[in-house]
## 1
Amino acid sequence: MGTTKIEWTDHTWNPIRGCTKISPGCQHCYAETFAERFRGVPGHPYERGFDLRLVPGKLAEPWRWSTPKMVFVNSMSDLFHRDVPDDYVEKVCRVMVQANWHTYQVLTKRSERLLELLRTRLAFASAMPHIWWGVSVEDQRYGLPRLEHLRQAPAGLRMLSVEPLLEDLGPLNLDGIGWVIVGGESGRGARPLARDWVASIRDQCRDASVPFFFKQWGDWLPWEPEHVPGWKSPVSYTHLDVYKRQE
Ligand code: SF4
């Protein structure tokens, strides 16, 4: 696809378009909002709105990027959606394994399928250091089981996207987690984010020596962390810092 404004990556690659909602974190899905804007526009990539479809013509895209990139895989979908056939998931992963000069970030809310496939059909890709496997964790009910699935998965590098954070997550088992991104919700109707919820995750990351990247407060609160007296984020890294740590 191309460059992106997402702070923790620099390119997106969408060999799948569209998705369906699965948990509260999906409520204000930016991908859906974007895609639905173009429903019915002839010839537009999102002519069919947010309906899920495979885009085989995009599979070879990483081969055409000659310089190394940090690639967010399926920013407009979910690789492990039930309607994406195993064969196609495997094809996406074979491209990632072969075009290995890039770093890929795969983020899903379908963590049970991620776990099942990394143990079986995707074992060839699971431990590759240039492929980061991640799950979204927005709350305790839906997010914490995903964290456990990820921890059980035979992944080389595991990441958590705690965004939009919707409540205090409580104690987290961060054993085996490579890095954590936290953020609030953006856009109209953004839900509240409490400073204590963020600080709790930050402190747990610090205690577990897990890199912590605080992305944003979102649109619910009209202030930024540097404007809060005493706010410090002692284990906050940019994605470039984290990238260097992997070398
Ligand atoms: S899983 Fe992700 S892409 Fe799919 S609806 Fe939810 S937020 Fe949107």
## 2
Amino acid sequence: MSVHVLPHPPTTSLTPKPRSNPTADTASSTTSSPELSSYESSENGVEELSEPIISAEKLRQIEKMESNPDFLWMTTEEPHRSRRMAILKAHPEVRKLMGPTLTTPPIVFLVLTIQFTAAYLLRSHHPFSIPFILTAYIVGGTANQNTFLSIHEITHNLAFKSIKANKILAIISNLAIGIPYAMAFKGYHIEHHKFLGEDGIDTDLPSKLEAMILDNVAGKTFFATFQILFYALRPGFIRSQKPTIWHGINVLAIIAFDILLVKSWGWNSLIYLIMSSFFAGSLHPCAAHFIAEHYLMNGPLPTKEELVKDGQGDNEDWLIQGLAQETTSYYGWLNVLCYNVGYHNEHHDFPSVPWTKLPELHRIAKEFYDPLPSHESWPYVTWKFITDPSIGMWSRAKRLNKGDKIDHSFWTPSTGTESKIHSDKETSDVLAQDEEEEEIAYMSDSDKPKNRNKKE
Ligand SMILES: [Zn+2]
Ligand SMILES: [Zn+2]
């Protein structure tokens, strides 16, 4: 498919459109979302529930989606690469933000201390006692979500310059989780970045089977409650990894530590760590980032054909809406506990910028990020995901394989004059430099000598 290039950014198209939900019952409509229905003042001043705001067009889309749900199949490249290039052109100083931050290692050790202290103090409590479960949910769930995200940060080689040092820190951080995780996560996560949305490669995507089975409130509640198991088990079914020596070191280190823990403090301490990991990926405010990052929370998009036929827009409108929703950021306070993972558009655009500098990246390139839809609340994302029938496991953008590239000027902001279309030479220069820096955020030990030789 050929993609037309827009001369300026799709500011108005990117504003999330008001949604309605005709299939939700009145009670859930009024409590779950202020957008779903409305109150109007009647003549005597008493507020009455009005008819839900819903266009016939939207109703048709939702009915169609519900009778024959499917993923949003995109024929374009993921949006981050082109926006990254446009931002680097407009703000070359963004490069200065790239590279590791030494803020991460002390946080890793602080969180480990918190978790080990709690595991020690709870060693004599029954795992099903109230203090045990509450501590595992409030303290442990938050601490281990922070641990998952420290490993995410370290996976991008953003704690130390040395790749080996990053790997060792990731395995040390992994001790709080109780189950080997860090090295397997690295392989799958790099593919999530490089092949975002690609069916069968990006294991962040639900499979068709999951989407079919879990396509109702009970199924979505089950998914949100046991998310951690989906993320742990799905990759094994979809895409196997070639184990490396680091996978072995990771497994042995965690098993040895767990044995030591059980021998020293007893089974309850290990159960505390594992229960914390479960809550970290369950119905926990911080766990909502899993859904918030890439689910299309504005409901089904009209098809290209419908837009063209109804004269409401053209292919670009459809494309822009899809791209704008593919990744969604959250800028609220829970980012403090989660290594700013809410800055997810920014992170996918620049995986080599550490968590401490993502807010600065956002400030520098605000004309790119401010027009994009963002989430105001993570817990609300989970609530909406479960209760809104027009959103579910199908609400993901997928690609069969790499589509046509979108010209980077797609994201170039309007300056009031016609945007300058960069020459092919300029584009390839930026791309080469860009890729070199990006690779560092993805590198593993086995890549390093090869890539270094290539550059020299
Ligand atoms: Zn992501
Ligand atoms: Zn990442």
